[in-house]
Amino acid sequence: MSTPTGNFNQRAAQLKARRARRMRLHNLAAYSVLVVIALIMLYPFYWTLITSLEPTGNIYEAKLLPSGLSLKNYAAVLSGTTVPFLRMVLNSVVICTVGVIGSVTFAALAAYPLAKMRFPGRDLIFYAILALVVLPNEAGLIVNYVTTIKLGLLEQRGPVWDTLTQYAAIVLPSVASIVGLFLIRQAYLGIPLELIEAARIDGAPELLIWRRIMLPLSMPTIAAFAILEFVALWNSFLWARILPLDPQMLPLSAGLLELSGTFATNSRATMAGAVLVIIPILIVFASLQRYFMKGIEGAVKG
Amino acid sequence: MSLLRRTAAPPRRRRDRRAAARSTLLAYAFMLPFLALLLLYHTWPVLFGTYLAFTEYNIISPPQFVGLKNFRELLGDAQFWSGVQNSLKYLLVVPVIQLLSIAVAMLVNRPLRSIGFFRTAYYVPVVTSFAVVGLIWTWMYQQSGPVNWVLTHLGLMQRDRSLLGNPASALYAVMFVTLWKGVGYYMVLYLAGLQSIGRELEEAAVIDGATRWQVFVNVTLPGLRPTILVCSLLSTISAVKVFEEIFVMTQGGPVGSTYTALFFTYAKAFQDFRYGYAAAAGIVIAVISLAFGIVNFRLTRGGRVDA
Q1: Residues contacting B184, CB < 8 A, separation 6+
Q2: CA gyration radius for chain B?
């Protein structure tokens, strides 16, 4: 067939095939690069996991499979003879729960007037908070340390009281989150004012409007911020390491460093500890990563 | 509205004023817990920290005002300046991490199957604590460890040596960890930036006969400029203030080769108990990072899309 249309069809098919072939090649190249990067990102974790499962052998060797399988390193960590690991798990859970609830509640409360009320001093307060982000805060650690000591949060007054005040000492400095305030205020700004006005005319008190209108309508942002905050609290270690805390009171990430000190001769046990610290955060991250990514993107676009 | 209110009858005005006062009070009540903590843990450190920089202070006895003594001492403190030098060297991370993150973001922006897996995988180091990451890499860097295995097998290293234990390589070894942990974070930001550009512009350029590189330089890169500003600003500031990696992996060693500026303030405050001196060093670091922030802002032209 040498009619013009036949020729055209043939050439179109050829072009299409060539394009598909080129596309496949491109994709193959892309996948190989993706896989190499994934290996670089994940192998250290995998290596730590398999090494922590080995009973003996050349510990730091590069490997793809464990030379043997044993849970004795995990038993060593969890038995808690040197470091109260399970207690640290509890500490981390308490700190994360209180910290997340506190920072979400306080930021969500404070953002409401800043977004939807008129009152004298509003802009001043808003810009003052903005300035705090820009202002350098290098001495923060030092002054917060002094403040914590002066507030008497680390004084001995009896077991129950001490536990409560030491938790407070760890968690309080991170509860007022400026990022959280901005994110949530941004979400509030998108809620139509008519909705609030209507509720006000119906005589609804502001607290009720906040709880019944503002909170539900900004839930996606609040959830994203809550996840960000949880991850940050779970991972923080510096502040707790600096405070002169009872070793019983350390949260997990800080406790892990304690573990690496006491298990200086048994890195495998520390590796087991590291795996145990990572697993919860990976579970949280994997199950909530959609909100999580949105939260990060929102934090930038904000 | 306010005009109407002002011309209203006196009794009404009083009631209005009382209502306004009540709603103002309410507004502040809403903000009270947040503002109280903010003042205590964010504002107070800025104010009191600045004051401390001009004092001798060890917590036990009250701060003694000493004027500029701390700053004068800092000028002659070789340890501090070598710390600043190491912090400035750390800035090498910034361009590398930005270029890598943009490249990775473009790679994972493709509509490939199971791309979600790769995005998640690259983000795992980001959500892992430096306490864990630092320990893992300390082990990975051991003399007989996986990093040496790779480097010797690629022919990049002649014989096994401890990268973290060697003053010539320790800082770069730590820098690599910062890079490895940070790429995923900036990748997500750039991904958001790329998606806000949209495919239409790029496709239009391709139809007009632009090459891949031309599209990248003329469409993608300008569209990313606001994101580049945010990201390079963030990474510049965190490079100057690098601390947690150092704290977990090297404690400033070996022979001070990873002793950074912020590590200096930490050591002065929490090892030597010289809080005033440490606060002064903190102020100098803050000024330096602010200066780099401004330079950065200039270089990226304020993140404007045009120009």
Answers
A1: A41, B122, B123, B124, B125, B126
A2: 26
Q: Tell whether B213 lies on the interface with A, counting CB pairs under 8 A.
A: no
Q: Rounded to whole angstroms, what are the CA distances from A40 to A34, A58, A77, B102?
A: 10, 22, 28, 17
Which of B27, B118, B191 lies nearest to residue A113, judging by beta carbons?
B27
| Chain B residues within 8 A of A143 when measuring between CB atoms | 44-45, 48-49, 52, 279
pLDDT tens digit at each of 307 positions of chain B: 444 444 444 555 777 888 888 889 999 999 999 999 999 999 999 999 999 999 999 888 899 999 999 999 999 999 999 999 999 999 999 999 999 999 999 999 988 888 888 998 999 999 999 999 999 999 999 988 999 999 998 888 877 788 998 999 999 999 999 999 999 999 999 998 898 887 788 888 888 888 888 888 888 888 898 889 889 988 998 899 899 999 999 999 899 999 999 999 999 999 999 999 999 999 999 999 888 888 888 877 655 544 3
**Angle formed by the axes of helices B78-89 and B275-299, to 10°?**
30
Query: What distance in Å separates the CA atoms of residue B9 and residue B175, rounded to the nearest whole number?
Result: 71
pTM over 0.90: no
Residues of chain A in contact with residue B34, where contact means CB-CB under 8 angstroms, are 106-107, 109-110, 176, 181
- Any A CB within 8 A of B122 CB: yes
Residue B84 to residue B288: CA distance in whole angstroms: 9
First to last CA, chain A: 62
With beta carbons less than 8 A apart as the criterion, state whether B189 and B227 touch.
yes
